[in-house]
Amino acid sequence: MDELNTALHKFNQNIVDASRQVCRDSIAFCMTQVVLPLLEKVGEIDVRFKCASPLPNEAYFQGMKTTCVNEFELTVILTHLVTAKTFEDTGCQDTNFSCYGRVLPHQAPHPLGDLLVDAGPSQGHLSAQRIRQIFAQLVRQAASILPLTGLTLEVFFKEPYAVVKIFRGPDMFLFELVPAFIFPGEWPSSAASWPEDHSDWLTEAEVKIAKEMGFYAQALPCPADPADQSLFRISFNMAEKYLLRHVVPENSNLSSTRKDCERILRLIRESDKDDFQPVSSYHIKTVLLHECARWPDLKSWSSEKLAERFLELLRDLILVLDSHELPHFFIRDCNLLRQFAPEQLTATAVRLREIYQDIFASPANSIRLQC
Fold first, then answer.
1. Long-range contacts of 338-342 (CB under 8 A, 24+ apart)
2. For the range 248-252, what are the long-range contacts, defined as Cβ-Cβ under 8 Å and sequence gap of 24 or more?
3. Cis-peptide into 226, omega within 30 deg
4. How far apart are CA 225 and CA 228, in angstroms?
5. Which among 33, 32, 25 is positioned nearest to 147, based on CA atoms?
6. pLDDT of residue 64
7. Phi and psi at residue 235, in whole multiples of 5°?
8. Cα distance between residue 58 and residue 358, in whole Å
9. How far is CA 20 from CA 35, 173, 261, 263, in A?
10. Per-residue pLDDT, 291
11. Distance of CA 115 to the CA centre of its chain
């Protein structure tokens, strides 16, 4: 285990940290030079689509998800479309729709006719499909009039994202923009039972803070019914970042390595995407959240325990693939693997077992941990 611990720390320092710095530099450049000016132009073209400027935080920018060193997903919060709204959690009636719901507008400063569902049982609700399509059209229009120097943009709609490709010399950066609404201080009904058994990890104050952060309703389709244009996906991005924040106990030199395990595994996934398919970075994060509840003591995440925690994270990822079931951390009725064929998940588990054995048997010689 000592050999693996040494190899993981070396990989984390030489590869993961370097990759994170590249991500930070890429995001800072692209956001300031392209994405923020682009979103400002969108609001000028159609005032309904004015949005909140993504603010920097511990994950670079609020609402930002990093897929790899040059691919990013950004949640764009629409602040001017509606001034009063209600979220209807569909997962409470049907678990097939867990993590999804509808947004009913009550007040709006501008006409919404072209953004509403105009027929059927969801009539009068906001249409996630129309919002993302019109948003993508506006992003394309804004890109055509955005003054740029030394950069080239390619903007297109690839369902369900408005995709912005930024070219700077030989480098390419890809941003997938997702329009969304924020519900601060609110918590979805389907997640009302959270937390059930995390008292050893989270204090009442921490749970309160996480819930007060609220959630996003992202204009993303539901796999259970892609034709239902009214469904928005629930995102707990803010609460997840808070729970996985860097923690150093008072009067202690101990520093948690919870995120180190995830970052190492995500980078291995990036270099072995075919073997990991269809595992996403969010699947890895969810397994990590469950691990944090299982190992609440920060001493379990000390630097000396990095190898143990990493192997458990990879092992438990294999186990959920074998069982074809990964419960959402906040909404336990939601199985994050339900949309994938069982045989596909089983085949992925077999491939990841080989990766586990390769890393465990000879860390110093494993191609996946080479620096």
1. 338/96, 338/223, 339/223, 339/224, 340/278
2. 249/298
3. no
4. 6
5. 33
6. 52
7. -125, 130
8. 33
9. 20, 15, 14, 9
10. 94
11. 25
* Residue count (the chain): 371
Report the predicted TM-score, pTM, of the whole model to 2 decimal places. Answer: 0.90
- Confirm if 179 and 42 have CB atoms less than 8 A apart: no
What token pair was written down for 338? 């339900």
DSSP class of residue 299? G
Instruction: Encode 85-104: b = buried (16+ Cβ within 10 Å), e = exposed.
Output: bebbbbbeeebbbbbbbbbb
Quote the tokens at residue 82. Answer: 């509606």
Beta strands (DSSP E) in the chain are 64-68, 71-77, 84-89, 100-107, 152-158, 161-168, 171-183, 215-218, 232-235
Closest CA to 326 of 317, 154, 181: 317
What average pLDDT does the segment 240-261 reach?
A: 73
Closest by CA to 116, choosing from 40, 51, 48, is 48
Q: Which of 12-16, 87-91, 144-148, 350-354 has the lowest mean pLDDT?
A: 12-16
pLDDT of residue 250: 57
- CA distances (Å), origin 310, targets 15, 17, 246, 307: 16, 17, 17, 5
- Angle 264-266-268 from CA coordinates, rounded to 5°: 70
Give the residue-averaged pLDDT of 77-87.
Answer: 95
| pLDDT at position 164 | 95
Distance of CA 365 to the CA centre of its chain: 32
DSSP state of 111: -
Classify 99 as helix, strand or coil.
coil
Ordered structural domains, the chain, with CATH: 2-80+130-369 (1.10.1410.40)
3-state SS class at 27 = helix
Which spans in 155-299 are helix H? 204-212, 237-243, 258-271, 273-276, 281-294
- Dihedral angle sign, alpha carbons of residues 31, 34, 39, 40: positive
Contact 200, 166 (CB under 8 A): no
Structure tokens at 123: 């009539």
DSSP bridge partners of 177: 74, 162
Which pair of tokens denotes residue 201? Answer: 């990890």
Instruction: Report the distance separating Cα 326 and Cα 371, nearest Å.
Output: 32
| pLDDT per position as a tens digit, 43-77 | 999 999 999 866 443 344 555 555 555 788 889 99
